[in-house]
Every structure is written in C-alpha cells, then in structure tokens.
Write a structure and sequence with these properties.
The chain folds into 2 domains: 319 residues, Rossmann fold (3-Layer(aba) Sandwich); 92 residues, ANL, C-terminal domain (GMP Synthetase, Chain A, domain 3). The protein has a 7-stranded mixed β-sheet with strand order 11-10-12-13-14-15-16, sandwiched between helices. A 4-stranded antiparallel β-sheet has the order 17-18-19-20. It is built from 11 helices and 25 strands. The protein is globular.
Length: 415
C-alpha cells in the first residue's frame, strides 16, 4: 500500500511548523531533497541499505528523510561504536553517511511515497548479551507504532517531544518518526546534558528517557515542569523508589515496555497498545502479536511477565537472567527493586554467581547515593525483611556506576 511520504505531507500541511531543532518542515523537505540528490550522485539507488553514522540532531533527520525520499533503507549506525562494531552494523550498506549531507546537490527524481509493506529501517538491538542483531522494520511497523503511541499518550497538535536518546536505537528514532507522521516537533539532544535537558523541559510536552536520566534530573532539583504531560520512561526497569521521587516532585511519568522487534512500545502505563496483543506463555514468557512486530507472527520476547487483576502487564525479568539458587527461581529485577527502596541506594544490579553449594548464588552490585552510607549486612537485612530467604543476596558489592548499554540496559555480563 502506497501512502504520501510523512515528510512531504507534513511540509504540505504544516510547512512553517518546527520539525526538529529549529528547522521547519518546509526547510527539512528541501534539505532532504538535496541530500537525496547527493546520495544518488554517490551511487545510491532505491532499495539500497544506507548507513547513517551521525550524532543525534538535524543532520541525522535530514539524512533519514533523504534516504527515504530516494526509496532506500536507513541503517542507523551509532558513531560512538568502535571500528569493529561499526563494521558489523554497516557491513551490508552500500554507503555510510558520516558527515552532514550538502544543502546543494544535483536533484534526482523523488517519489515522496512510502510503501507500508517495504522496509524503512534496519535497527540493531542494543546488544546487552551479544553482538547487536539487525531488525528490519517496515513503514507499516512504524506507522502502527506511532498510532498506538498516540492513542496511549494522547495527541497535541503543538506537541514538542524531547529526545535525549540515541537515534541509533528504536526508542530515540521513533521520536523522529512519530513527529514526522504527526507533523509535530522533535527536540533532539546530541548527547546527555542535564542542564540542557532542564532548559528544554521548560517547553516540552513529552519526553522520552531511561531511568538514569530521570534520576539525574531529580537530583538536579527538577520539579513541576510547566508544559509536560508525561515522561515516557523505558529502556530499563524503573525502581518504585524512583517513581515515588518523581511523584513527590510533581513530575508525571508513564512507564513503557517495548523492544526493537516490536518497533518500540509494546505496553505503556501497563496497558498493551491498542494494536498489539500480549499473552503470557505457560513458562511465563511474554509473547507479542500485531502490526508493529517485525516480520509478523508471534514475537517471543525472552521477558517474563504477568497480568494483574486490572489487566495491566508487569514485566518480572528476563528468562535468561533468571537465577536458579538451591532449586528456586529468582528474578533479578524483583531483588533490584527492593534494594532500590533503601534510602541510601541509587541503583542496584543482581545476578547469579556459580556456587558449589547452591548452584548459583544471588549476588548484588549497588551504587550508593552521593553522601549516603550503607553496609552489606544492612542491605541484606533490608531485603530479608521483604523477600523470601532464598532471594536475599549472598554478597553485596559496591561500585561507582553500573555498566550499561547506550539504551540504559544493565550489562550483567560485565558484573
């Protein structure tokens, strides 16, 4: 099914509206047209895979729409990757855009259409346990994801969505795509900067963040944002203590569960998107179906979950992360949430360690809040007062920070 390209439609209906970081939709369309001409001059053709190795910002948005105007497939490449990692992600690309496309270039014929069944982008998973794997997402996947998000969060014709996330991951890229579909505004940060984020949040109506970012803003005194409808919080589990801090500060937060293979959001605020069907398999694994799922068919997520009495989805943890200690299954996320409730704990990660007696021993790594103090025995007692004995960490280590992927997931293999 062919539809008018999202950028062409936005430029036609809202030409003077800001598209991204001060550039209007009319200007973005012109720059994308010139960029498509430059790509064609370099040999790019419809159907080619074109890597985009640019930092988040306007040049990335120009390149993205230039690739689509040409009928090619975008492959976001995080420019911070090492040489081998970058080669892995871009190995099938005809060419890689690693500098802003020129504003003047020989023009080429452009269709300004999207085939909803055609691939739009190949986005790589965050690689928390292995090399990033490519996921092919169609224009239809992106459209259904945007529609599902709009129903879940509401819409505002003057939306101003702050994105401090990498555009090489689905959570950040989806902000650009949703904004183009709705002809609304995206404000994109090239890198995390707490002061810059606070400045942007004076006018933002929505913001996408991972829990670490929200914690840094609250630590900086962020309170009662005047225009913000909600923070869309995902990428990693959000500790109840962090959500309570946000509530006390008057910061509205909506947690979201999603993944690359489902084109971002699966459930928002606990509720599956209207266009997705979520089931719990016999072994507790979350299974997703619907038009946002790459390749169609059921998506076995590898995550464990449950529905509460109201029908809200709760993610318990990863199947692969489950610790079997003395024959009992322990979900690290459950123990992490309890540790994070301790007033001295900023964040915690729990994993299994080979043990001759227990098979696997539950152990934790904890980051303390600035100026706070707590010992191993105190934290173990804190968990013991709330959870079964076999879930209490056998050991607690302390660190200045937890190793994480760019999308915020804890790298347990590095602990």
């Amino acid at each position: 099914m062919l539809v008018e390209s999202w950028l062409a439609r936005a430029a036609r209906t809202r030409p003077e509206r800001e598209a991204v970081n001060g550039v209007t939709y009319a200007q973005l369309r012109e720059r994308a047209a010139a960029g498509a001409g430059a790509l064609a001059d370099r040999g790019a053709r419809s159907g080619d895979l074109i890597g985009i190795a640019l930092p988040p910002g306007t040049p990335f948005a120009v390149a993205l729409h230039a690739v689509w105007a040409l009928g090619a497939v975008a492959v976001p490449v995080d420019p911070r990757l090492g040489e081998a990692e970058r080669a892995h992600v871009a190995r099938a690309c005809r060419l890689v855009v690693d500098a802003p496309l020129p504003a003047e270039a020989p023009r080429t014929a452009l269709a300004w259409e999207h085939d909803l069944d055609a691939p739009a982008a190949i986005v790589h998973t965050s690689g928390s346990s292995a090399l990033p794997k490519p996921v092919e997402l169609t224009f239809g996947n992106w459209l259904w994801s945007a529609l599902g998000s709009a129903v879940a969060l509401g819409t505002d014709p003057r939306e101003r969505w702050l994105c401090p996330l990498p555009l090489s991951h689905v959570g950040g890229l989806s902000v650009l795509v949703r904004s183009a579909i709705g002809a609304t505004t995206a404000r994109v940060l090239e890198r995390w900067d707490t002061e810059r984020a606070l400045e942007e949040l004076r006018e933002a109506t929505l913001a996408s963040m991972v829990p670490t970012m929200l914690g840094r803003l609250l630590d900086a005194g962020w309170r009662e944002p005047p225009c913000l409808r909600t923070v869309l919080l995902g990428g990693a589990p959000a500790a109840p203590a962090l959500l309570e801090r946000a509530r006390v500060a008057g910061v509205p937060v909506t947690t979201t569960y999603g993944m690359t293979e489902a084109c971002s959001q699966v459930a928002t605020g606990g509720w599956p998107l209207f266009c997705t069907r979520v089931e719990i398999a016999d072994d507790g694994e979350i299974v997703v179906r619907g038009p946002t799922v790459a390749g169609g068919g059921p998506l076995r997520t590898g995550d464990l979950g449950r529905f509460d009495a109201d029908g809200r989805l709760h993610v318990v943890g990863r199947k692969a992360d489950t610790i079997i200690s003395g024959g009992e299954n322990v979900a690290p996320a459950e123990v992490e949430a309890v540790l994070a409730e301790h007033p001295a704990v900023a964040e915690a990660a729990v994993h299994g360690r080979p043990d001759p007696e227990w098979g696997e021993a539950v152990v934790a790594t904890v980051v303390l809040r600035a100026g706070a103090a707590a010992g191993e025995d105190e934290l173990r007692a804190h968990v013991a007062a709330r959870l079964a004995p076999y879930k209490v960490p056998k050991a607690v280590a302390f660190a200045d920070a937890l190793p994480r992927t760019e999308s915020g997931k804890v790298l347990r293999r590095a602990l």
